[in-house]
Specification:
The complex is a heterodimer of chains A (about 200) and B (about 200). Chain A has about 200 residues and is mainly alpha-helical. Chain A is built from twelve helices and four strands; from the N terminus they run αααααββααααββααα. Classes of the chains: A mainly alpha (about 200), B alpha+beta (about 200). At the A-B interface, helix 1, helix 2, helix 7, helix 8 and helix 9 of A face helix 1, helix 2, helix 4, helix 5 and helix 6 of B.
């Protein structure tokens, strides 16, 4: 590795936010400890592990599953997940007849309390534009092909409702604990660009 | 728009500066000077070519700079002795987690409004082309769909972004088949797209 890399200039944006943050702190408009706490929250407290627990519980507990589809906000809050960009949740059930796919064509709306911050691809022009007009092409790029008999339901997050896809429970998982099941539920499966992992896939 | 190119195992934040942009925006939102709808509007106003070639947080940063330039928060802050005056302090570290967990719902339960449409109704999306902020995507304007659910009453982004007037009214989940959206030559005509649309975006069909 050349030493040049260690002397790389910070980007224009990095310099601008550094200056802006300094100005905001100096004027008392932001508390720097709060900024650190926010970065910590979004780096550690929210992420797909949250949604995976919701899905795993729905797989093993029929009452919870029914509650999740009737009042997703409350059922999700029961597990401790709530708040910003998840105030009004809707759960979407994948079945052999219907496969759900979530997008925000207008910006990047995403159920942050259960999935964390969205990946770059979700926020980018190709996904945002193609998910609504060519969902099967999008899924093919993710390696997922669905039979013609399965209809795709794309959900464009145009209002403040936020969507969590509940993938189908994989075969061969009888007797798995909730924790073992949660390990099969990927972020992409909860957006709709993948299925949940099979036990074999999870091993690799 | 090209291929999607997902990055495997990507981190939530790719650079430390992105985290600072995220945190500064959220911390400044806590003052309540601008609604989220206006924040989105500022992001949307980044001119097309720059929007498409900027990274996500570069767009956020440009919007934050614009919001600060438009309001007089920075000037007001300078007038006061920073040790003394603020009746409501800036968002504190201790308040971060409770504030994030509480969120800021756009639902307005106290607004009792008659709903014009019921589940199963066929609707046509109005051909509205506002120059300001809207949550009515172009691809659905003029299209015919079917109401799948009545979501309830929510703050109206179009007005809230422009003037801060909430004008809450009913949002419906409306389903549009691929045939309706993309025409009779679309592959998989029975695939569908569901959108959450405000009552004032819709007419009976």
């Amino acid at each position: 590795m050349s030493d040049e890399h260690s002397h790389a200039m910070p980007s224009d944006a990095a310099l601008r936010i550094k200056a802006l943050e300094s100005a905001l702190v100096e004027k008392g408009l932001v508390d720097p400890a709060a900024l650190d706490a926010l970065v910590d929250y979004y780096s550690n407290d929210v992420g797909p592990q949250n949604g995976a627990r919701v899905v795993a519980r729905a797989w093993v507990n029929p009452e919870y599953r029914a509650w999740l589809f009737e009042d997703a906000t409350a059922a999700i809050a029961e597990l401790g997940y709530s708040g910003r960009q998840g105030e009004d949740m809707q759960a979407l059930a994948n079945t052999p007849e219907e496969h759900n796919l979530v997008v925000c064509t207008l910006c990047s709306c995403y159920p942050i309390p259960v999935l964390g911050l969205p990946p770059v691809w979700y926020k980018s022009a190709p996904y945002r534009s193609r998910a609504v007009i060519d969902p099967r092409g999008v899924l093919a790029e993710f390696g997922l092909e669905l039979p013609d008999a399965t209809h795709i339901r794309v959900w464009d997050s145009t209002a403040e409702l936020r969507y969590l896809v509940v993938p189908m429970r994989p075969e061969g998982t009888e007797g798995f604990t909730e924790e073992e099941l949660a390990a099969l539920v990927t972020r992409d499966a909860m957006i709709g660009t993948a299925k949940a992992l099979s036990p074999t896939e999870a091993e690799h | 728009m090209g291929p999607i190119t997902p990055e495997s195992n990507e981190p939530f934040l790719h650079h430390a500066w992105e985290g600072r942009v995220l945190a500064c925006q959220i911390a400044m939102n806590a003052w309540g000077v601008w609604p989220l709808d206006r924040v989105r509007w500022f992001r949307e106003r980044v001119p097309g070519p720059r929007y498409l070639t900027s990274s996500y947080y570069e767009i956020w940063l440009e919007a934050l700079e614009g919001l600060l330039a438009e309001t007089d928060l920075m000037e007001e802050a300078e007038k006061h002795d920073s040790e003394v005056v603020r009746k409501v302090p800036a968002l504190t570290a201790e308040a971060v987690v409770p504030t994030m967990l509480k969120g800021c719902s756009a639902r307005r339960c106290e607004a009792e409004l008659a709903t014009r449409f019921a589940v199963g109704d066929t609707v046509r999306v109005r051909n509205l082309n506002p120059t300001g902020h809207t949550r009515l995507p172009r691809y659905v304007r003029g299209r015919i769909g079917k109401v799948g659910a009545v979501r309830g009453v929510f703050v109206f982004p179009d007005s809230n972004a422009a003037t801060g007037e909430e004008l809450p009214h009913t949002v419906y989940s409306v389903r549009f088949t691929a045939r309706s959206l993309w025409g009779p030559d679309a592959p998989h005509l029975e695939d569908a797209v569901n959108l959450d649309l405000w009552d004032t975006y819709l007419d009976p069909a």
